[in-house]
Amino acid sequence: RKEVEQDPGPFNVPEGATVAFNCTYSNSASQSFFWYRQDCRKEPKLLMSVYSSGNEDGRFTAQLNRASQYISLLIRDSKLSDSATYLCVVTPYGGSQGNLIFGKGTKLSVKP
Amino acid sequence: EPEVTQTPSHQVTQMGQEVILRCVPISNHLYFYWYRQILGQKVEFLVSFYNNEISEKSEIFDDQFSVERPDGSNFTLKIRSTKLEDSAMYFCATGDSGNTIYFGEGSWLTVV
Fold this sequence. Notes:
The complex is a heterodimer. Chain A is an all-beta fold. Chain A has no helices and eleven strands.
């Protein structure tokens, strides 16, 4: 079983749409959770950390359900500039802060 | 904004040759990491380095690989006797004591 699983997409949506990404992780002892975005052939960039209480940053909302080992990201009012691959990332229990386990990512394409 | 810089941005090497990839971390960062991403695949953790020694490494990071910080600034990844399957984007990342790490733009290695 893969450690971090995501729907590969691609998701093709019009500008202004709301889009949701889902992710599951296999290790219940995972410690920290993040969403990164990666543009084509570029480095991953941190979008936001994910907390059990849920957190929001502008148009972006992230949720964590530890019982279900499930992480989500919601993008509202999507923009053309949101087109990228969205990576679900966890850190294992006891691992160093930089031992990030990445999902393969979900590609988003926002069309005019 | 401070950034992690990597050189070279792209290197083509013959199978069996040694390659050194270089990274200049953000100045006050003490934690250093290497990741790789084979084309079309997920980002994979290779190694973490702190206080002049490896603190954690993955199964990928075998005897073919080594890291060092020879002059207190550059952080290098050496790949001995490169194989075709070493062709990938290699990302350096650095962090301070907080939870966030910052990725460089990557070094694209092509082994022919």
